[in-house]
Model the fold of this input.
Amino acid sequence: MPEFLKAKEPFKFYTRLHLSELTGLRATTLGQLLDLIKNVPGSSIYHHTHRFLQQHQYLSPEPPNDFAYWVTEVLGEDELGERLASIDTIQYPTIRSLREKIIFTIEEYLKSSALAKLKFARSGEEFHFMKSVSFVIPTEYSVIDLGEFVDALEKITVDSIYFHIFEARLRLERVDNDFSNWIGNSLQDKELADEITRLDPYTQTLENLRKALIRIIKNRIVV
Done:
């Protein structure tokens, strides 16, 4: 067995159970949608920008934006829908900054489109705000070096990968994903940590993301 550098602290893998809840808030106009986006909890913004990744983890990786879908399909505002859909989620390190970008996009559109303010959703097609509730649970895996780490990556569920890559960074407002943080700080391998950070998790399925992580780490091990 090859000798691996031991980390200062072990990495403990966690997973999460996810529950979606109605907030009781709904919008029938673009103005109402904007006002509610400004005030709903961050867990609601998280839900409507990451719902696809949470519910359909093995399919197309491109996460639809619920706001973009509603203004396009229900209000018929195709241009705004395209602007909202083009927001690159990975550029925003916190839900707060993502919320601000969505607000800015809608406000700028309303300045140039007075008619958009007058459109109402038909009965039954209102935008219902939901929120994500997560329960974080420890797994049986705790590792101390890259050899153990890559072995665990092959065994953990995609829910665990989702938690450490997406939820920890964006929803919990950590500077980086948990994997890069541990490798960079506890193993002091900044080069490998940066390579993992550069992965775009939004352009691939969670299973493909697992494969990419394993490949990168195994390449590092044999260097």
Remarks:
- The radius of gyration is 20 Å.
- The first helix runs from residue 30 to 39.
- DSSP finds ten helices and two strands in the chain.
- The longest strand covers residues 11-27.
